[in-house]
């Protein structure tokens, strides 16, 4: 009875636990991010009752954990105007935690923070252009003087001085990764400025950057994140955690992005193997490259080994002519079987041709689970569009829901290309007032630019879904009214599966009225065409010369 109650709600209906790992957990120390009133980089504000629940006192140094395994240290202050489940922090702190307003962070006591002996701090190059004088005297000394500010290695912070603001990065801290800068702490600021490009490169992708694959993401997190972060869960139940996952789907659906997001969010070491890159003409070198990858992953465990285009290095052995491919498949089988059950290493393979992979790899103990990263539905496309347009300057009239409805068959990469094309269309319209010879563009022109609904419609007209790019027909503006007579036949075609002579012109009219992707096929490659149609469902599949597809009498 108790088990049934736990898996059922008050009405007796069975609960769906397939996406339970994605649900936001409630706890007193999980607070919602709100905009700060005080713009101090080292201070966050909480409601007094929240501080009492967390056993914090005014001026305590606290550890705040954000997204993508990022954390920082701040001084906690009480604020009666702050809502109880919220925490107020400025933009600098939010950037260090990789969170936005409305996101959830966790707050922890940090009683073991020590006074720093030495800290090494360098400016970011693009914020000191034209700045003269000593940066330490002008910026760092007034900023840290008698402030007892906590700092964390790797954090960025902004210092305002005079008419300019300079951004700095904490390069090293001694004795620990986070410490308090006291009056006797030595501050070093000698060295080359930090390049902005290097900082932008460190802004890795996370779960928020992946859209349209909610159920698949839940499965992947169960199979990857749980064994890496909480291996005791599997040990207590008495089962072995999975060793490998095979992601398959059309190109551009986000398989590589998902693997990188999981690695960044779990903090695991990420080793990427591009299938064709490990191939070598020298005997034994390909297998050696594969062994080195697994050895490197074991040294840096917990690790994720991502093998992209795994079908290129592990094809079916009975269908390959080369001895090298056979040896690589055997080596990969040996390495996966040799992984220790508690080694905290997960192997993720990605392919768009799962049936081309050697069957020996597709069994329990090797690639335990196969997950289809297919073409997203309308809700998924809307998620992806919101991700790609979150930093775009959009006009108020832009209707992303309508765009998602009209982009059937588009994968994530197609939607990203669509957004880029819409932005380019916006730029093209302003080219008559932009002089390419000028060093800069007038601020008034930049402020007037915004991507409109019309720009997206123009981009839609020249963009095609990559899943059907090789087989999609260019559908002209033809409707049922353009087909004369044959009313009974047209009615049957509209209502039922259709079969008619290929020269009367029914296929294009059906494609227009079905409002979906259509494929006009010949007799070749029927299996592949059906696979593509299945990935892009709902899809109208028109088979010309149906009788030619009959392999033998009575069989179709």
Describe this structure in words.
Mean pLDDT is 82; it is low at 1-7, 497-524 and 551-556. The chain is globular. The strands form five sheets. A six-stranded mixed barrel has the order 1-5-2-4-3-6. 32% of the residues lie in helices and 19% in strands. It has helices spanning 2-6, 48-53, 91-97, 135-144, 196-201, 214-229, 232-237, 255-266, 285-299, 323-338, 378-388, 400-405, 412-429, 443-448, 453-462, 487-495, 506-514, 526-535; strands at residues 30-35, 43-46, 61-65, 71-78, 86-89, 104-109, 114-115, 118-123, 149-152, 156-161, 164-174, 178-181, 186-188, 244-248, 269-274, 303-308, 345-351, 369-372, 517-521, 539-543. Residues 241-377 form the AAA+ ATPase domain. GO terms for molecular function: ATP binding; ATP hydrolysis activity; polyubiquitin modification-dependent protein binding.
CATH class categorisation of the largest domain: Alpha Beta
Number of domains: 5
Helical content band: 25-40%
Strand order of the largest sheet: 1-5-2-4-3-6
Shape: globular
| Main sheet makeup | 6 strands, mixed, barrel
Category from helices, strands and their pairing: alpha/beta
Computed Rg:
29 Å
Weakly predicted, low-confidence segments: 1-7, 497-524, 551-556
Index terms:
556 residues; alpha/beta; Barwin-like endoglucanases; Vcp-like ATPase, Chain A, domain 2; Rossmann fold; 5 domains; six-stranded mixed β-barrel; five-stranded parallel β-sheet; 18 helices; 32% helix; 19% strand; globular; disordered N terminus
